[in-house]
UniProtKB/TrEMBL annotation:
Binds 1 heme c group covalently per subunit. Coiled coil: none annotated. The keyword Electron transport applies. Keywords: Electron transport, Heme, Iron, Metal-binding, Transport. It comes from Paraburkholderia monticola. Heme c binds at C27, H31, M76. GO terms for molecular function: electron transfer activity; heme binding; iron ion binding. This is Cytochrome C. Residues 5-101 form the Cytochrome c domain.
């Protein structure tokens, strides 16, 4: 399901934070909810990608395998370097949460 259709099928802005996944993946080491830090805020990511049809798959892939920097000079490290493997289901949960910001 793409992010846009996820939002129109009942997912509302402000999904509950998947705290255990956020902690496991050390998301807050580089991101914050509402202000740029070492990486863009979750709100900035949501604003940029929320209505892009291919964004959800791209972001899930980037969460799991890492990827080049789109916001500066710091690339996204792979999940194994952030806190251990990340399943496709867990990446999906995190992306839905970020896009709901």
């Amino acid at each position: 399901m793409c992010a846009a259709s996820a939002l129109t099928t009942g997912l509302a802005y402000g999904e509950p934070e998947p705290s255990a996944l956020v902690d496991q993946q050390h998301c807050m080491f580089c991101h914050t909810r509402d202000a740029p830090f070492l990486a863009p805020s979750f709100q900035q990511i949501a604003e940029r990608y929320r209505n892009s049809p291919d964004a959800q798959a791209m972001l899930e892939h980037k969460l799991r395998l890492g990827g080049k920097a789109h916001w500066g000079d710091t690339p996204m490290p792979p999940a194994a370097e952030r806190g251990g493997p990340l399943s496709a289901e867990d990446a999906h949960t995190l992306v839905l949460w970020v896009l709901s910001q």
